[in-house]
Amino acid sequence: MKKPKIVLEVIREEEGFSAVADIADKFIGTQGDNMEELKQNILEVVNLTFSEDGFTYNMDEIELRLPIEKSATSLH
């Protein structure tokens, strides 16, 4: 198995953030009170998820798709 590309969708919650993805038939999901905590949790869950496959990741190998704020997309 080739090392999967990791892309997670980041969701702004009422309190904090969450991130989710379906990669190589595996669901990845985690949350954090702030972006720094979210990144730490993402790294931990991704490495736990793929440890049996022999893959280790660092944050430079993980793409985060951040939410687009409504005000940035409004065309008035």
Question: N- to C-terminal separation?
Answer: 48 Å
| Helix residue percentage | 25-40%
Low-confidence stretches: 71-76
How many beta-strand segments?
4
Strand order of the largest sheet: 3-2-1-4
Radius of gyration: 14 Å
Residue share in β-strands: 25-35%
What oligomeric state do the depicted chains represent?
single chain
Biggest β-sheet description: 4 strands, mixed
- The average pLDDT is 90
Note the overall shape.
Answer: elongated
The number of helical segments is 2
What can you tell me about this protein's structure?
With 76 residues, the protein is an alpha+beta fold. The protein has a domain at 1-53. 26% of the residues lie in helices and 33% in strands. The protein has helices spanning 35-50, 70-73, and strands at 6-12, 17-23, 26-32, 62-65. It has a 4-stranded mixed sheet, covered by helices on one side. A hairpin with a 4-residue loop joins strand 1 and strand 2 (17-23).
List the helices and strands and how they pair.
Elements: E1 6-12, E2 17-23, E3 26-32, H1 35-50, E4 62-65, H2 70-73
Quick overview:
With 76 residues, the protein is α+β, with helices and mostly antiparallel strands. It has helices at 35-50, 70-73; strands spanning 6-12, 17-23, 26-32, 62-65.
